[in-house]
Design goal:
heterodimer; A: about 425 residues; alpha+beta; 16 helices; 14 strands; B: about 260 residues; mainly beta; 13-stranded antiparallel beta sheet; two-stranded antiparallel ribbon; 5 helices; about 10% helix
């Protein structure tokens, strides 16, 4: 106890130096907590989009669908497949989808025919996709697709110069390749994090899409959502084992989007890199402070040893000074960093605005990634910082402490 | 000329080489100028009306539609689907570089904007650009006789795109019959010198006193199992086609 008290007092003897070292550690820890919080926030957004509206946890396709995306590469006997997946014990939602490349144009009567734009029909199970993490989660019940009412991606709506309540003409081909066309009413315009939906999507109810494509009891994709994204591989294996799906491709989101899966795994490495920066900052700050103060106090250490203090006591004292300093730094840094994360989690950080751009998002790998990031507070970042600083400060002061303990009292006092 | 002249020949038409040539051999060699001129004008006329069966083959299905096609001058064409009944009346109108589609089911006409020109025309292997392009083999390509071809047997003429030409093809190899009057095959190479698609002509018949291949088959190279075939049932050249045929109001009255 006495050692701790002496150590504490010693830190106060050169306040500027102690504060500088403390500041360096605090700054490093603030950076760690904030930057890792930013990463956590942006990766959450990505993962949420992939495993939510975009892919779900597991997807089922015709084995060649992903390669060709041809309208006739469908999952046959949908009802049977759905029934088997639905009968599994795990809690989940099962949602079939249809896709077809078409041309869309304003369907309003006018003197000059409207210009067509490439679009994609996305036929969905409206009730399944209206729940949390579904493609239509953001829509109010009255705006959801139903019958000939469709939801149109925001970018497509802008290109076509159409708005809610207007008619939309869609032309394409049915499953046999013959021209197909229909008029729809735009019930809603949606901003989806799924780039395809936002830039080209004409989202309609599954049966309407099936009618347009002249197909029945078939789907291009079945989206399955289990309880947890990290159990997707397991869920995929169980689904693939069902007899009705033996000839279909069943993939977890990790298998379907390996590049994102790897990116998300890389987050842990980013966390480590920032942790390493905290290590280095605290090690150099503490080593320097501890070394300087030990050298300055050679006479004092000699005196302490001469009046009977054990060398181990000197070591303990020097170590305690450093660990004190380090932990105070990390405490201050954690408080500041956490406050920043919590504040930014509330307001969001708009990267585009910081860079002077007006864009709201950027498309990458089929995901529309918002420039506004909401950092997420993770307690483990603080814990890592504490452990890292405690270890480094102890290690960094070991050498000066050992030197001090090895002093010969008579010689040291004459210096 | 675009490749269109070969396949959708009807749509762009030019002064016709009405007389049937007896062949272009001069001392054992082809008269290249005459051959290319004849080829370019093979299906052209001031105006024409034809009935064409269009068969689109995909890896797992084949579909056939019958179309009636009116052309006038070089840059006006109207294509109306007649069969099968469920899509009858679906029409495409081309006037110069503009393209419109009319869908009778929804009674709407939609304009295909320039940005969509490389997209497929009605789900076939032809692009919208094939329909509207008005380039000419004689004007846009430097051509020369490249000697004999073995498969198919005949003469080969090589067309190299002139540097200023904006287009998809850098080179076209055209193979003609022994007498140079009938095209047999054309191979289209893209700007990266890769074979992109192959066109074949066969079933030579006499239409309206002109001897021309009745069947044209287009096969893209990068899509296995894809093929589009045009089979002329009838063609009447230099018939009276009123100017009003190529208007939006006529397009919408087709059915």
């Amino acid at each position: 106890m006495t050692t701790l008290r002496i150590a504490w007092r010693n830190l106060g003897r050169n306040r500027k130096r102690s504060l500088l070292a403390l500041g360096a550690i605090a700054l490093a820890q603030t950076t760690l907590v904030f930057v890792n919080g930013l990463f956590a926030g942006s990766y959450d957004q990505m993962l949420q989009t992939i495993t939510g509206p975009m892919m779900g946890h597991v997807q089922v396709h015709h084995p060649r669908w992903r390669e060709e995306r041809a309208v006739d590469l469908y999952i046959d006997r949908l009802d049977a497949v759905r029934a088997q997946v639905g009968a599994m014990e795990l809690p989940m939602s099962v949602s079939p989808r249809l896709y077809s490349a078409v041309l869309a144009a304003s369907g309003e009567k006018s003197e000059q025919p409207a210009d067509a734009e490439p679009a994609v029909i996305v036929g969905v199970d409206v009730s399944a996709e209206s729940t949390r993490d579904g493609l239509l989660e953001s829509l109010e019940p009255q705006d959801r697709p139903q019958g000939n009412k469709v939801a149109l991606g925001r970018v497509l709506a802008n290109r076509l110069n159409v708005s809610e309540g207007r008619e939309l003409a869609v032309i394409g081909q049915d499953v046999d390749g013959f021209p197909a066309s229909d008029l729809f009413v735009i019930a809603a315009i949606i901003d989806s994090p799924v780039d395809l939906v936002k830039t080209r999507g004409v989202v309609m109810c599954f049966h309407t899409a099936a009618g347009f494509l002249a197909i029945r009891d078939q789907a291009h994709e079945i989206v399955i959502r289990g309880s947890k994204a990290d159990q997707a591989d397991e869920l995929a294996r169980e689904v693939a084992a069902l007899p009705a799906l033996s000839e279909l491709e069943v993939l977890s989101w990790r298998e379907a989007m390996p590049e994102f899966s790897r990116m998300i795994d890389m987050k842990d490495w980013f966390d480590m890199i920032f942790l390493a920066i905290v290590f280095v900052a605290s090690a150099s700050g503490i080593a320097n402070t501890s070394m300087m103060s030990s050298f300055e106090r050679t006479r004092e250490f000699g005196m302490l040893l001469a009046i009977g203090m054990q060398p181990a006591g000197v070591v303990r004292m020097v170590l305690a000074e450093s660990v004190f300093l380090g932990l105070m730094g990390v405490l201050v840094g954690s408080l500041v960093g956490s406050a920043l994360v919590l504040l930014a989690a509330h307001t969001g950080i708009n990267y585009a605005a910081l860079a002077g751009m007006e864009a709201a998002d950027i498309a990458f790998g089929g995901i529309s990634i918002s420039y506004t990031i909401y950092p997420r507070f993770e307690f483990r970042h603080i814990l890592f910082g504490f452990i890292a600083v405690a270890i480094t400060s102890a290690l960094a002061s070991t050498w000066p402490a050992t030197l001090a303990a090895r002093l010969e009292p008579a010689k040291a006092m004459r210096l | 000329m675009s490749f269109l002249t070969l396949c959708v020949a009807l749509f762009i038409s030019a002064p016709c080489s009405a007389q049937e040539p007896s062949g272009f051999l001069k001392g054992g060699e082809l008269d290249i100028e005459a051959v290319v001129k004849h080829f370019e004008d093979l299906y052209r006329s001031d105006s024409s009306i034809s009935i064409v069966d269009l068969t689109v083959t995909r890896p797992r299905r084949t579909r056939t539609m019958t179309m009636k096609v009116w052309t006038r001058g070089r840059d006006k064409a109207l294509i109306v689907i007649q069969e099968p009944a469920r899509v009858a009346g679906t029409a495409t109108l081309k006037v110069e570089a503009n393209l419109w589609n009319y869908l009778p089911r929804i009674k709407r006409t939609i304009r295909i904007p320039p940005s969509m020109m490389l997209a497929s025309w009605m789900g076939t292997d032809f692009t919208n650009d094939d329909l509207v392009r008005e380039s000419s083999y004689i004007d846009d390509y430097a051509y020369r006789l490249a000697g004999r071809s073995d498969d198919p047997a005949g003469w080969m003429v090589r067309f190299e795109a002139k540097p200023e030409l904006v287009g998809l093809w850098s080179r076209i190899e055209l193979i003609l019959s022994e007498d140079g009057t009938i095209p047999l095959q054309a191979r289209y190479y893209d700007r990266r010198e890769r074979l992109s698609r192959t066109m074949r002509w066969d079933e030579v018949r006499v239409f309206d006193s002109r001897r021309i291949p009745a069947r044209l088959t287009l096969e893209p190279e990068d899509e296995v199992g894809h093929k589009t075939e045009m089979h002329y049932r009838t063609i009447r050249f230099d018939v009276d086609v009123p100017e009003a045929t190529f208007s939006l109001s006529f397009l919408e009255r087709q059915r």
